[in-house]
Amino acid sequence: MITGFLALYIFMLAAFTGYEIISRVPVILHTPLMSGSNFVHGIVLVGAMVALGHAQGAVNIGIGVVAVLLAAGNVAGGYVVTERMLEMFKTSKVSAAPSPEKKR
Q: Considering the entire predicted model, what is its pTM?
């Protein structure tokens, strides 16, 4: 029973600490932070697959499948968000030379 309360305490402490750290990150650092978090999400996916590989029983296998699906969605979504953020920093290609049609 104590281990359940200890795990809940560690989870709550990690959630609070993570929220406080992320809320203080400057906007310019969000893209590198997302890249780092994508790495962590990949590790979570591998952990979910390992847990599913060791699962025994229908309930454990079901929970493992859900964990793998959610982790895979999290990884894919992280890369999509990072790509969209990087698109914001790309310069648009506007030609500096006037087109021949405008010289008339």
A: 0.56
Question: Could you give the CA distance from residue 64 to residue 86 in angstroms, rounded to a whole number?
Answer: 33
Q: How many CB atoms lie within 10 A of CB 4?
A: 8
**Domain residues of the chain, as ranges?**
29-88
Mean predicted confidence (pLDDT) in 70-76: 89
Rounded to whole angstroms, the Cα distance separating 40 from 61 reads: 23
